[in-house]
Amino acid sequence: MTSMPINSVKKSTSRRTLILVFAVFTLPVILAKFALNDHWFNYGVTNQGTLVANEITLEKMGLNKAQFNKKWLMLYVLPETCAEQCQQILHNINNTYVALGKEAERVTPLVLTNSTLTAAQQAQLHSKKWQIQDLPTKTQQLFTQPQVLIVDPLGNVILSHQPPKNSQALPLFGKALLADFKKVLKYSRIG
After folding, report:
1. What is the pLDDT of residues 25-36, one digit of tens each?
2. For residue range 68-112, what is the model confidence (pLDDT) as tens digits?
3. 130: closest CA among 86, 83, 97, 152?
4. What is the mean pLDDT of residues 16-21?
5. Which are the contacts of 65, defined by CB distance < 8 A and separation ≥ 6?
6. I need a surface site. Which of 49, 73, 106, 141 has the fewest CB within 10 A?
7. What's the order of all strands across the beta sheet hosting 147-151?
8. Can you give the pTM of this predicted structure?
9. Is residue 157 a contact partner of residue 149, using CB atoms and an 8 Å limit?
10. How many CB atoms lie within 10 A of CB 140?
11. Beta-carbon neighbour count of residue 138 at 10 Å?
12. What is the pLDDT confidence band of residue 152, given thresholds at 50, 70 and 90?
C-alpha cells in the first residue's frame, strides 16, 4: 500500500477548494450574462397595462378635468353596442373599483358611452359613485376600440387596458387593472 505524501494531499485539497471557490463566484455571473443576452426576464416591466406613449389628456379627449376634483379616473370607453360581454366587463370593472378598498375614495369611476345605459347595464355598476357621460367625438377619434384607461389627477392618461374578448380572461383582466391602480395610488402623492 502506497501512501501519498502529505504535500500532495494538501495540494489536491487546495486545488479542489480553489476550483470550488472559482465556480461559486463565476457561475452566477455566467448565468446572469446568459439571462441578459437571451432575454429570460421582462426588463423593468411592472405595469400590467400598456403605457400610453403619446400625450393624451382629458382636454384632448373633450372632457373637462375640473369636474373630477383632482382624483384618479378609472375610465371605461364603452363600445358602440354594449352586449353581454360588455356588461360582464362593466361588472368586472365595478368589482375592481370596490376592491380598491379605502383607496377607492381617491378614484372616480367614469363610463363614456354613445347611448344611455340600459337598466341591466346600470345594474352592473353597483356603486353610486360611477359617473356616466356621453362619449365625446374627440375621444372616439383617439380610441377606436373599447378601453379602460387610468388617468392621473392632472388629467393625463397614463395606462390603457384592452378588455378581453372572452369571459375566461375577465378575472386576469380585473387583477391586472387592480394591480396597476394599487401601484399608482401607492406611489402617488396627489389625488
Report:
1. 999 999 888 888
2. 888 999 999 988 888 888 889 999 999 999 999 999 999 999 999
3. 97
4. 90
5. 57, 58, 59, 154, 155
6. 141
7. 50-51, 157-161, 147-151, 72-77, 107-113, 131-134
8. 0.73
9. yes
10. 15
11. 13
12. very high
What type of residue is 76? Answer: Y
Question: Which secondary-structure segment (H or E) carries 166?
Answer: none
Indicate whether 175 pLDDT > 70: yes
> HSE on the CB side for 146, CA within 13 Å?
20
The whole-chain average pLDDT of the chain stands at 86
C-alpha cell at 104: 377607492
Task: At 133, give phi and psi (nearest 5°).
Answer: -130, 160
Q: How many residues does the chain have?
A: 191
